[in-house]
Amino acid sequence: MTIVVKVGGAAGNALDPVLTDLARRDDYVLVHGGSEAVDRLGEALGRPSKYFTSPSGVVSRRSDPAHLEVVVLALAGGVQTEIVAAFARLGVRAIGLSGVDGRLLLARRKDGMREVVDGRVLRVTDDRSGTIERVDAALLRSLLGLGLTPVVGPPAVTAQGEVVNVDADRVAAEVAVALRAETLLLLTNVPGLLRDRNDPSTVLRSVPKEGVEEAVALAEGRMRKKVLAACAAVDGGVPRVVIASSRGVAPVERALAGEGTVFS
């Protein structure tokens, strides 16, 4: 059995419990985000993060060339190294890979992106975001076969060698599909998809295929990306996806036991 675990990088996530839980296993690929680290570094460099909302309500990071440099520094040069070092302290031999390394994540640059500004739909210009077209599953399996734990994160690379930013939740979904993973865990700073975003007790426990439209309608802001990634993974053949909390004791085991929102 192979599982793919994605741990979020927004404020309120808990990385250490996830890594401690995973250190007991040897059957997984870890995918990471790092939005808080990107925001923090961007502020320090005078390049604050900017976001836009698409006509469908999805909130995305604006990845112009200057900000893409911040993303690369914060994720591939910062968050990923910290995770690999933390794994080393736990006795885990991990190796960090951005999507550019070995062309692990091959993408195409997005064209025709739109944003809503004051009720008007406008074209997003000079954005270096991409859509993943291929994951080198053979590379990941080779590393796993050598007893190494892959730690994967954005950015990705195009066939022309252009670096593009990609959503980490979608990275996790595509990695899970490519590896034919049994389960994908999307661990975040809330206990699952909430019917009321202000009430943690209102977790939607399960989303069968016929409940996808309701789940997408419930999701707001960045949670919508997680729900869309979960749906993409299930459509791609992953039997089960769980959106759950990264906090508390044994978050991986709890999510595998079904604690959170289960897509199937």
Structure write-up:
This protein is an alpha/beta fold and 264 residues long. It has a single domain, classed as Carbamate kinase, CATH 3.40.1160.10. It is 34% helix and 25% strand. The protein has 8 helices and 16 strands. The strands form 4 sheets. It has an 8-stranded mixed β-sheet with strand order 5-10-2-1-13-15-16-14, with helices on both faces. A hairpin with a 4-residue loop joins strand 11 (156-158) and strand 12 (163-164). Helix 2 (35-44) packs across helix 3 (65-89). The two termini are 17 Å apart. The model has no long low-confidence stretch (mean pLDDT 92).
User: What spatial order of strands do you see in the largest sheet?
Assistant: 5-10-2-1-13-15-16-14
The ordered H/E elements are EHEHEEHEEEEEHEEEHEEHHEHE
Largest sheet: 8 strands, mixed
Structural class: alpha/beta
CATH fold-type name: Carbamate kinase
CATH hierarchy class name: Alpha Beta
Annotation, overall tally of beta strands: 16
